[in-house]
Request: fold
Amino acid sequence: MDYLELWNSAWPAGVTMLGLGSGFAVVLLIASVKLKVEVDPKIEQIHKALPNLDCGTCGFAGCGQYAKAVLGKPELLGRCAPGGQESTKAIAKILSLQISDSGPAERPIVHCRAHAADKNVYGKYHGIPTCTAANALANVQACKFGCLVFGDCTWACRFDALHIVDGLATVDYEKCTGCGACSKACPRNLIEMVPFRCENMMTVACSSKESGKSTRGMCKVGCIGCGVCAKQTEIFAVEDNLARLAYEKYEPTEQTETAFNKCPTKVIIYCGKTTPEPGAGGQKAKTS
Reply:
């Protein structure tokens, strides 16, 4: 068979395939137009107002799903912790809603300040290297309320804002978005989401409810329930051998600073972008 005969036998098949391909393309084009689902332009606007981190804090799989949901149910407004008040206000404007100030942004506080050298540990743990697994055992460390160090919270954080530093979960407030994932990941509920009324927030960095004597035997820097802080200001109270601070009432005052300085175990600390030493004056500009 010469080239001419080969060409004469091949070109009809080529033309047929070209025709079929063109036909399918036209059918698909028509189908895409006829079956196109119209998307409300407000969904795109809302999506652009979100940080597009897809962290799931809002309760939805991603920002796209949340944008659709909040358009249909405006009561879901304000669920984006990373976007904060800025995103909330932008979405409210798109939806023509009037909103009030939602208050200070929440950030995590670790209710433990015991580093490696401060803890009394029974022995070396050989189990699954997670806080959840270790927490199921009784004798991992002397204090059953302290940080377990295996970093479940650090794995949960998508913003690299939590690290284990010298045997203690530590928040990097420069990177933290307040998504709350670390709080949910801690099996001992040591990480609490707190409204930061000031740049540096005062707190009691301990969760132990043991007696003062027992706490001293387990940890060098735990709360002993002495009540010195509560004598300085009513925003502190001691319950179950543990001092707690009423965050919703907190304002920097001479009394709170005195409580900070007089704490015998220095378990009252500041958390935030800066961490002042006792007597340095802990509060700066408000966060909201």
